[in-house]
């Protein structure tokens, strides 16, 4: 009998599984590559400020140091870089936005820095000024997931399979059986696929579709993330990731011409004198809840748990919340933040 079966090898399932592994727990993690993964599409931008409202993100003070510490350990273990720090520069749109920023300045400390610049780089003007977020960056999520998978394939912890909920059976009061193997506990980290989960059918998990472009912009030179209605993220290959759309209440997970047109229209306003070419167009579904907080905790049946609903800020949230989830699974019932407890929807 193994300790855990983790369903889903996105960022949530992978980070939790690595923490379980480090604590000596025995597990399998299962993933189907036939279902679009939001983690593999996401650009991985992390930022402790909601730049639209000039406010700290939920748990910003806790999640930044947790993410840095976790990924630093992982980089040492895998001998690869996953978590990159770089400034995020938001271009202010008008005088009203500038006044709103100044009014909320103290609420954003210590993650922001004063800057009166009116030009960011050649061809990128900021007549109303900028907000410089000095604690920001991006994560190479697909590279991290691939490194974890390769490691787990070698250690026989990874199972590539099209998981069907009907195949998970109660074996006895203290264990579950799937694919001929017995597990003490099962944790669902399956993203929007959990909407088909019979044990989570009463929880308000929805799909927020996001589309991202990779562009070639030959005469744009940036060493930071640019933000104004969308983000522009420099890549090592000289291209730029641009996103993202937010499309609610849709079942479609495929890239669309409408999504591409929306992003290109916003980019044209941001970079009116730049020429660009679309290299790649991707889409994925973010698992979100009605109150924009995760779903964490024990499900109705003994031995089943959820770690889901991390939305568009999962990169920053996951290391801190995965540790909370680990503590909860180890018996510390108060470890999960109140705002994330799935029982709030009971």
Brief sketch in words of this structure:
With 346 residues, the chain is α+β, with helices and mostly antiparallel strands. The protein contains 8 helices and 24 strands. The longest helix has 19 residues, at 60-78.
What does this structure look like?
- The structure is a single chain.
- Strand 14 (169-172) and strand 15 form a beta hairpin.
- Strands 7, 8, 11, 17, 18, 19, 20, 21 and 22 form a 9-stranded mixed beta sheet that branches. Strands 1, 2, 13, 14, 15, 16, 23 and 24 form an 8-stranded mixed beta sheet that branches.
- This protein has 8 helices and 24 strands.
- By secondary structure, the protein is of the alpha+beta class.
- It has helices at residues 11-22, 38-41, 60-78, 95-103, 105-108, 141-155, 257-270, 314-329, and strands at residues 2-7, 27-31, 45-46, 49-50, 55-56, 83-85, 88-91, 112-113, 119-121, 124-125, 130-133, 137-139, 158-160, 169-172, 175-178, 181-188, 205-216, 225-227, 231-234, 240-243, 247-248, 277-289, 295-298, 304-308.
Structural class: alpha+beta
| Contiguous helical run count | 8
Percent of sequence in beta strands? 25-35%
Largest sheet: 9 strands, mixed
Number of beta strands: 24
Terminus-to-terminus distance:
31 Å
Q: Rg to the nearest angstrom?
A: 21 Å
Which key features would you list for this structure?
8 helices, single chain, 346 residues, eight-stranded mixed β-sheet, nine-stranded mixed β-sheet, alpha+beta
Question: Secondary-structure blueprint of this entry?
Answer:
Layout: E1 2-7, H1 11-22, E2 27-31, H2 38-41, E3 45-46, E4 49-50, E5 55-56, H3 60-78, E6 83-85, E7 88-91, H4 95-103, H5 105-108, E8 112-113, E9 119-121, E10 124-125, E11 130-133, E12 137-139, H6 141-155, E13 158-160, E14 169-172, E15 175-178, E16 181-188, E17 205-216, E18 225-227, E19 231-234, E20 240-243, E21 247-248, H7 257-270, E22 277-289, E23 295-298, E24 304-308, H8 314-329
Parallel strand pairs: 1-2, 1-16, 2-13, 7-18, 16-24
Antiparallel strand pairs: 3-12, 4-5, 6-12, 7-11, 8-11, 9-10, 14-15, 15-16, 17-20, 17-21, 17-22, 18-19, 19-20, 23-24
Helix pairs in contact: 1-8, 3-8
